[in-house]
Amino acid sequence: MEIIIAKGAGFCFGVKRAIDITFKLAQEEGKGIYTYGPLIHNPQVVEELRQKHVFTTENLELPDIKTLIIRTHGVSPRVYSKIEEEGYNLVDTTCPFVKKAQNFAKILTEEGYQVIIIGDRDHPEVRGLLGFAGDDALVVNNAQHLPPLKKKVGIIVQTTQSSETFRKIVLEVASRAREVKIYNTICDSTSQRARETEALAAKVDLIIIVGGKNSSNTNQLVKLSRTVCAKVYHIETADELETEWFTGVQKAGVTGGASTPQWIIDDVVEKMKEISVGR
Ligand code: SF4
User: Among the options 47, 84, 125, 198, which is catalytic?
Assistant: First the structure.
């Protein structure tokens, strides 16, 4: 069986930066380090950090917090104020692409636009973005479920959303509002990974997508791959691979989400090689 690994599989620039900063801090400070929510959407990495005494919390009144790390997804101005009030040492690893989207939300609000955030309401990045948008801001992830809009509407999009969802919602909003200002804030890494995954999925018999089940960008890759490949499997670790999946498979692809560490992808590839030899 031929195994093709996507070139861009694994950590994106923003996640790599956040991970490097956090592991360095864990080594230097040792105690009292917390991340505001899980640092990345990958349970294996979060567990590794816990073993290095870097814990996760959203309770900003814990007595033993000394250093608080803001993850790549960013937070709302309200959370920044609370951290300042509590006097914690703040380490901000918000991805610059997310900062840019936050800034556009703020500008649109100041210019009097009703802000529409295309994204998943419960995603931490979207919760943070909402804090920069006005009280009339909306979160939308389906063109068919648009509520009534104001005359002036400004659009931003969660950095890891699919271009297809963005395109459909923009078209629908444009047909309803009188004035529309659009910022496409999908990050380059997300767009490139999606293009690469779609091309790979189209030329293999089976594709394995490695990444957290709670990772938005990994789930987008799964969805996209299913449009062009009949056998698509989403796993978090090599242990989940099943030999039967590979029956009759000549060519298999592997890729990973933006928050999937290289060592997990390597493990998966190794196990696939073992399965191939044992057939
Ligand atoms: S996926 Fe994009 S926006 Fe999110 S952390 Fe990575 S580079 Fe930044």
Answer: 125
